[in-house]
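User: Please predict the structure of the protein below. I'd like the answer in structure-token form so I can feed it into my own downstream comparison script.

Assistant: Understood. Taking the following sequence of 557 residues as input:
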Amino acid sequence: LNLKSTVFFSVVSVMYPRFRLGSSLVAPQLTGTTRAASHRFASALTRVFRASPTVSSPYRGVHGVAVPSAGGWRTALSRGSGVSAKRGRCASQGAAATMGTTDAQAGVAGGSASGAGGDCPDDVPVACFPLTSGVFATILSGPLRQVVRLIEEKGFEVRIVGGAVRDILMGKVPKDIDLATNALPEETRALLMKQKVRVVATGLQHGTIIANLAGETFEVTTLRTDSDHDGRHATVEFTNSWREDALRRDLTINAMSANLRGELFDYFDGRMHLEQRRILFLGHAPSRIQEDYLRILRYFRFYGRLNAGKTPHDEATLAAIRDNVAGLKGISRERVWMEMRQILGGERASLHPTVRTMGTCHVLEHIDLPALPLVEPRLSHLDHVAKHTDNAVTRLVALLPSPGEVSRVLDRWCCSRSEQDLGAFVASHRAPEVPLALVDAQTILVHAPSQVVEKLRERLVQTLLYRADPDTATLVAEWVVPKFPLTGEVFEKAGLRPGRHFSTALTAVMRDWIDSDFSLTCDDMAPKAIAIAARSAEAAAHAQEEPRRKQKGKQGR
């Protein structure tokens, strides 16, 4: 019975991709072992279908190997007969998305421009990555393969999702790799823990667990849909549909997924939009924004990062932003700063036009920044500062007219204490009339307690970069703060008792040490320091004795 079930469900899963072996609705009677066997057998059948030039299958028309080129990814798509009209259209869309043909462009001009896309079956990839070279090969680490294998061998499916796929297509190594699976979170957690994988179930109610293996961390989330949005939160429901899960994403370029076999799944033309550097909300833009108003800032972040003025904004998208911009008032300021930090720290070429467009859409005044009429005169200065530093706080200072305004915005955005201190320092030292030559910076550092030297160094470097003095900034960044050679032991050896006069003498001779470019030694400074300390001690003793003499004189009279 198990053998027959294995063969039957394997064939069904290959011929009809919407039936997934991980679903209890399809094969509820199969044991874990049988489901794993079915999964392996289905994979083998899939390889046969793809290799055969005569067998009809859902994979006909979309198999091939993508190769990198200067113009992007190109896929050699082999087509054949025996494909249904619906699946044939899906294959055509996949081909157009990877080749950039006029068919796909026509689709974008129509309904798919807002992310409507095609209705490809969930399990039909549109292209394949090369598995032995490029960025995709570098991310296939042992821990990643092991985590995926532990889940897939139980009959479930696992894919890389979200920004990691986008970065791979752009030739960048992703910072984080997020995974999605059709296994329930409790199932994922149990099967990983059984194999001694460290699991942190911090987001279990939202379907997310964190797997830590060999020092690498991966978020694994169950396929889900969101409902009952209030602009910040949503009710989560689990699903078996990869397409429905992709519909949760904000932008088409973030809605792609790929498995570890290198197969790319793209339901909404995200790959084509990425090649064209088009930033489009997935589906109906106003609805997508109203699900989470922070997506307005995410739109501008990705536009600045990926587009940099290469293509104009989609006017319908900007209209949707203007109509819903008031929703940003309800977003926590911490989340606003998380996005603004990345916008301000992004590509310099796109910073000026991005901030200006945010102003024309009235975004600035809804996130506690001055409105465009006040900000626009400072945009050229922002561009000048951005040439020298990519620090988001320093660039923010360039947008704001006064130290008080800088402190207000950074406090309102709940920035860290170090970020607030940096902004206050740069704002109060940015004026050209404030002296900040190399010796001034060195003086500040040698007087600072050792535990705050590096924080002060960062503030000095950022201020110098703000003032367009990168040479001095480099010298300050590389300068090793010398240790003041004179200590209190010199005074004790001279027979002086400890007291405030030690500090008075040290402060006096430190100026000489700085003026000598820190070349004076202890022996050079000791005589002068001892003389100053002795005079100071004598003056202090005289000052203490004078009241006593006066008191004795009164008693004598």
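That's the full token string. Residues 522-556 form the longest helix (35 residues).
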